[in-house]
Structure formats: C-alpha cells, structure tokens
Design a protein that fits this description.
The chain is mainly beta. The chain is built from 1 helix and 16 strands. 22% of the residues are buried.
Length: 242
Amino acid sequence: MLRFISRALAFCRRVDSSEAKKEHHLKLLEGDTKLKTVQGVVTKFYSDYGFIDHLIYFRSDVVTGGVIPKVGQKVIAIVEEDKISHELKAIKVDTFCDNYHDDGPSDSCTKVSLGCITSLMEGADCISHTAYFSVDVVCKDFEPYQGDRVEVAFSIEPNMQRRKAISVKPLRHKHVHEACITSLHGRSGVIDNSIFFTLDSLKLTDGYIPQISDIVNVVAVESIQSCYIWRAISMTLVKTCQ
C-alpha cells in the first residue's frame, strides 16, 4: 500500500513539473518579444546537448516528451538570444515527422526557419541548398550575399505539400562606430580585423573609395566569410587616412 502511494505521489510530482514547465514557457512568450519559434534540423548532438542548424544550442532537458532527437531530424524550437553573448539558445524543442499535420484548419500558415545563403542567381537565391526565394521578398536595405545567415518566413500550404518564402532578413546585425579599415585585397577588405566587406555588395557614400586606416561607421550582418562571421553591408566615412 505504501509503495502504491509513493508511486502515485511521484506521478503527481512529474505532472506538476510538466505543467510548471509549460506555464513557464507561456510566461516567457508573453513577456519577451525577442523569443521566436523556428523550424530547423538537428545538426549535432552529444551526450546531453546539441545544435539546430549548426547555430542554436539546446540541452536534452528542454526536449518535450523526453525523446532525444537524432541528427538530421526536423524540430520546432522556441529560441531566445543571450543579451550579452548574442548566442541563440532553445528553451523548448519539439520533434516531428515529415508526415506531421496539425489538426486545425488546412489554410496556409507561416513558419520561420534559419538558414545560410549558399548560392546567388539572377532574380532568386538559394538557402542551404534546399530552398529558393525571390529577391522581391528580401527586407529593405539588405542585399543577400553568399554566406549570409538569414531568417526566412515561409507560407506553408498543408494540402499542397509546398512552401513559399514570403520574407527574408538577416539573422543578426549590428552597428559599429568609428572602426578602422585594417586590410584591402582587390575588391575585398577587412574592418577592425574582424568584419569582412566586398565592394560587390557594399553601400558607400557617393564618391568614397575605402582605404587602409580610414575610420568608418559600419552596419554588418552575420555571415560566414572565410575566418570572419560578420559582413559589412554599408560603410560611411568618418575620417580619411589622407
């Protein structure tokens, strides 16, 4: 009898814990507008943690249902950004199958995915070798370049088993004030030894040609460029080296 009561109490504690976690996630979503729901693929997994799309860190204890996802499995995650390190971390991860369908209406809905620009074509670009989008849906003042990390909103039509990109924007961006151009190589260069730029996709003040040691203000987006993770998309001269 005592054993039965003990098991019943343990079960109740698990239920309460599950409900508490659910309530915690709901409160986070209501109180922090920076949280977002993204759809991605598990690209790495170790003993108790892993990564989604090579970028989003998650621990095994945030996976719902206690079923640890395998590498290559699709997931839906609630993601937050660390205010100091700016790293992305999943606070909840749901796994699902390719044949998964919501029980709700079959009208089109919107999903958000993270990806990397893998190729550029006239009128359209490719994300992570799997999806294409028209340049018409790219956000204002952003010209995609190979290697850029982007956030893409897709319109999904369940009955037709297809999706369409409806908006594309940089995953992250930052403003850098009074930075120094540290190197130039043909049409490419580096700012503060950390931000890559190329004249092929850089907005400049009319008539300005970047020179080593120039002091500039820069807007940069997260991008995979050789050993750099930021790419300048606009540059304004503050003080010339001459």
